[in-house]
Amino acid sequence: MRLILLGPPGSGKGTQAQRLVARYGIVQLSTGEMLRAAVAAQTPVGVKAQHIMAAGGLVPDEIVVGIISDRLDQPDAAKGFILDGFPRTVPQAEALDELLKKKRIKLDAVIELRVNESALLQRVETRVAEMRARGEDVRADDTPEVLTNRLASYRSQTEPLIHYYSERRKLLTVDGMMTIEAVTLEIDRILSAIGAVEEAKAAKKAGAKRTAKLAKKAGPGMVAKKTAKKAAKPAAGKTAKKAAKGTRTAKKTAKKAAKGSRKASKGAKKSARKALAGSRARAVGKTRKTAKKVTKKRAKA
């Protein structure tokens, strides 16, 4: 998994990042820690950053991107990572996209922990009051005043990233006001869904590769035969249909002819009967006529 967690100070990004590291065996990449590690290792980018920080200046984006690039090349980042504290601005996000594109690394998701700022300030005020009531020291950066300034900085610089990643269909929003466990469960559900989609894509791609490999192994002759066979199937089907249709037509014609033959035969028989009856009637008439003549002759004699 390759992720970015977005959210204002106090939204719980650090807690959720630690849980994701433990669950997926990925690394959490903090820009601050990476800068210190690069300076300690005296890498070329780390040396540049050291000179700038020593002079009290802000480390430019290109140096930070260079440090991230070196860190992504380390073996433990191969399985996945969570970027913490970077990007903070749209230009940084664009520079990161270019870096990942060069390295052929796909960013899986940007998870935004959306919270209510008023509720966050109330949480800090309550925590500070409880710490003071117990006589504990309150950290200078853990006061409502500091949090108010950090929230204003987040809104002006980092919040535009929500629109940036939403346009690229990478943004997934989780209600950060839920309990820690509920937020963890929701993030797990989202990442499981992403994993299922990626597995399906990988399986489809693997199937296409196997098909291409088999086609290559079979050679053009075998491919041509298969293509011809596929082409022949529809043609054979059409020919068979036409032949069947012709057979049905021939049967109908034969049936009509047989019917006509029966009618003709019946007519011929009827004519023959009529002719025979007529012949008999004439014979009887002739016999009667001859008998009358004989009777007349006898009477005269």
TrEMBL record:
UniProt GO BP: AMP salvage
EC number assigned by the record: 2.7.4.3
Family label: Belongs to the adenylate kinase family.
Record text about domains: Consists of three domains, a large central CORE domain and two small peripheral domains, NMPbind and LID, which undergo movements during catalysis. The LID domain closes over the site of phosphoryl transfer upon ATP binding. Assembling and dissambling the active center during each catalytic cycle provides an effective means to prevent ATP hydrolysis.
Localization in the cell: Cytoplasm
Catalytically driven reaction(s): AMP + ATP = 2 ADP
Region span, NMP: 30-59
Keyword Thylakoid: no
Pfam families from the UniProt entry: ADK
The organism of origin for this protein: Bradyrhizobium sediminis
Enzyme class per UniProt: transferase
One GO cellular component term: cytoplasm
Region (Disordered), start-end ranges: 217-301
Ligand binding (ATP): 10-15, 134, 178
InterPro entries linked: Adenyl_kin_sub, Adenylat/UMP-CMP_kin, Adenylat_kinase_CS, P-loop_NTPase
Residues binding AMP, per UniProt: 31, 36, 57-59, 85-88, 92, 139, 150
Main location: cytoplasm
Pathway named in the protein's UniProt entry: Purine metabolism; AMP biosynthesis via salvage pathway; AMP from ADP: step 1/1
Name of this chain's protein: Adenylate kinase
Gene Ontology molecular function: any one: ATP binding
Complex formation: Monomer.
Function statement: Catalyzes the reversible transfer of the terminal phosphate group between ATP and AMP. Plays an important role in cellular energy homeostasis and in adenine nucleotide metabolism.
